Amino acid sequence: MADRLKQVTGHLTNSYGRGLLAGEVAIVTGAAQGIGRSTALLFAKEGARVVVSDLDGAKAQAVVDEIKAAGGEAIAVAGDVGADDFPKVILHATISKYGKLNHIVNNAGFTFDKMLHTMPDEAYDIIMKIHVRAPFRLIRAAAPYLRIKATEGATPENRSIVNVSSTSGLHGNVGQANYAAAKAAVIGLTKTVAKEWGPFGVRANTIAFGRVDTRLTRAKEDGASIEIGGKSVALGIPAKLANSSGAMVGIPLGRGASPDEAAGAMLFLVSPLASFVTGHTLEVTGGAGI
Predict the structure, then answer these.
(1) How many Cβ atoms from other residues are within 10 Å of residue 143's Cβ?
(2) Is the residue at 289 inside a domain?
């Protein structure tokens, strides 16, 4: 790892010329749009072979087509991350195609907002299932491909896990008892993985995003939705909050992030530049909450 880090911090080599993630394989869930799409595109640009996973197979394939058109390599794997067979399906596709796995980015998710006193069990349970249980099950299933002791004297491959959290998980948020609880839980999960898998050279980190311009932070009145269990769940926040100048109050940079900026933080954590960073929660908030 030290040799690889040397390559990317000023000693330009053929490997660096091919990107920070040259020859590595990354699974990115929820990669058909928003932060996930930007992450998949950026990883591919940096030389990774990307497994683009999403509930919407057509959109996932469109991202793969975009990557290939730019000279990168990727495959699409459609599926619900909460399905019992999802880990088996995506890992089989990954290993069959590329023969190994370096990184998992557990990005897939959505919000199902209700005030706590009116929140039904199903709204709480589905958010916990997608944001906590699903990452846990995928990481557990990937153990044979990540918990690999390096041959004595050999430089271990760069291997990592990034779980996406939120400022809601750090500070709570009105109307998001379910989401806040799930995003807090994933931080504890990540720290545990860091401790258990560190001896195998696997790093595990969390990103807590603040306001990023995605369908989850745009006006609910725009009509974005996701179908869960045959029911349509509206995404976004009320227009009066999404579009008000007050929405940016408390952010020192005075704006939200773009999905591409969010993807940059993802790249940092999986890259050799973060070779000694594990168990950390990186706040990508424009300074909000400091």
Answers:
(1) 13
(2) no
Number of domains making up the chain: 1
Quick check: 246 pLDDT over 60?
no
pLDDT over 70 at 178, yes or no: yes
For residue 260, give every residue at least 6 positions away whose Cβ sits within 8 Å of its Cβ, in sequence order, or none: 38, 42
Helices (H), 103-176: 121-128, 134-141, 143-146, 167-171
Return the higher-pLDDT residue of 205 and 241. Answer: 205
Q: Which residue has the tokens 């930007």?
A: 38
Angstrom distance (rounded) from CA 282 to CA 261: 13
The residue range of the domain holding 271 is 2-284
Provide the annotated active-site residues. Answer: 179
Q: What is the mean pLDDT of the segment spanning 13-41?
A: 87
pTM here is: 0.86
How far apart CA 92 and CA 97 sit, in angstroms, is: 8
Cα–Cα distances (Å) from 99 to 24, 26, 145, 239, 277, in that order, read 11, 12, 9, 46, 26
Whether 41 has a pLDDT exceeding 70, the answer reads yes
Tokens of 205: 């980190």
DSSP H helical ranges for 9-81: 14-17, 34-45, 57-69
Band of the pLDDT at 156, cuts 50, 70, 90?
confident
CATH number at residue 263: 3.40.50.720
